[in-house]
Each structure stands twice: as structure tokens, then as C-alpha cells.
Design brief:
By secondary structure, the protein is mainly α. It has two helices and no strands.
Length: 71
């Protein structure tokens, strides 16, 4: 979660630089940060799912080899 704040802050700084040094109103900043946090949560969920699917594939491979070789 800590790295999310840094990325959100960096985004807002870049946004400000790209817009003549002005940042959006605080409510808009909060909305942007919330959206970025939401995207990070989706990424975290996808990473967890990928890890689980990879482990399942490894388990299936191991089971298949054991069945075929008797080892």
C-alpha cells in the first residue's frame, strides 16, 4: 500500500508540471488517488490469481509425471 501513495503523489506532481504547475482541486486529487489505488488493488488481485494458477499448473504437471512414471 505504501508504494501506491508514492505513485499517486508522483502522478499528481507530473500532472501539475504538465498543466503549467497547477494541480487540480483537492477533491479531484482525491478522486485521482482513489482511482489509482483501485487500479493497484486490481493488479494485486490479478497477481494473486496468477500465482495461484501457476501453482495449480505446477501441481498438475507433477501429478501427471508421477502418474506416468510411477515415481
Amino acid at each position: 500500500q505504501h508504494h501506491h501513495v508514492k505513485v499517486s503523489t508522483l502522478f499528481l506532481l507530473i500532472y501539475g508540471l504538465d498543466n503549467g504547475g497547477t494541480l487540480p482541486p483537492k477533491s479531484e486529487q482525491d478522486r485521482i488517488v482513489a482511482f489509482i489505488d483501485h487500479l493497484f488493488a486490481i493488479c494485486d488481485d490479478l497477481e494473486k490469481m496468477l500465482t495461484e494458477k501457476t501453482q495449480t499448473a505446477l501441481n498438475l504437471t507433477k501429478s501427471t509425471v508421477e502418474l506416468m512414471t510411477g515415481v
